[in-house]
Amino acid sequence: MHLVRYLSPVDGRPVPGVRTGDSVAPLEGVNSFAELLRLPLDELQAAVGKVGAEVPVDGLKFLPPIDGRGEVWCAGVTYERSRGARMEESSEQSVYDKVYTADRPELFQKAPAWRVVVDREPVGIRSDSGHDVPEPELAVVANSHGEIVGFTICNDMSSRSIEGVNPLYVPQAKLFAGGCALASGIRPVWEVADPKALGINLVIRRGEDEVFSGTTSTEKLVRDLKDLIDALFLPNDFPDGVILATGTGIVPELDFALAEGDVITITIDELGTLTNPVAVGTEPFAFLATDNLEGIR
């Protein structure tokens, strides 16, 4: 089971639903993910059990699993590989070593709901960067009460060249058009036995060639998932819920950089797959603002 958003084949409005296999059923009495994520976990689970008539997924347009005032945040330097990669690329290596073992995690806002792209839509790299990589991450979905209600896949796109010059450039290295992709479905928390035991796989293809692949497991994540959520909620309210990407354990070597047209595929056990082609600059993402103005996302 996955919680999804899709465009109604009847009237074209965004609809929250439950996907099972090759069919989707709309949630009854729930008009948005924002409404769903305002509910306590027990009420959310009950709401997910009330669905309408199923429709086949063929031909449906799926939307990012976040809307309203929802936000995507990220945690950084939560895997040993991430610490090492950040230190390799940076002129200020010690800051990454310190945050890896610090009591306070590194947390930063990645994107509001309207800037998020979904499976099969493009992800972006900055035109002024030159060295960019995907970061495949387990993403934790929390409701407005700070309870973990599900999990999904995030591609936290990153400019290594910009962050490497100075850690204070992290906002520019992380927040840009097409910089945040989410899988189309959220796997409910009650269906994932152990989120700290999930395999993660990344494959990057350039034309017909596989130019990079890597694997890791969430068991290598040094932070407790609930601790990360608690740290996020301590100074903030998230009235329509929040999705927190928990960091990456796969970072290509310094001699690899993404190119326009590359195709990135991230797979996480029990959650599914996220696939996105790579585009450059802001123009390929103008549709995000237009779609939201027209109310179709």
Automatic annotation (TrEMBL):
The keyword Metal-binding applies. Gene3D superfamilies: Fumarylacetoacetase-like, C-terminal domain. Pfam families: FAA_hydrolase. Keywords: Hydrolase, Metal-binding. Residues 72-278 form the Fumarylacetoacetase-like C-terminal domain. GO terms for molecular function: hydrolase activity. It comes from the Bacteria. InterPro entries: FAH, Fumarylacetoacetase-like_C, Fumarylacetoacetase_C_sf. Transmembrane segments: none annotated. Belongs to the FAH family. This is Fumarylacetoacetate hydrolase family protein. It comes from Kribbella karoonensis.
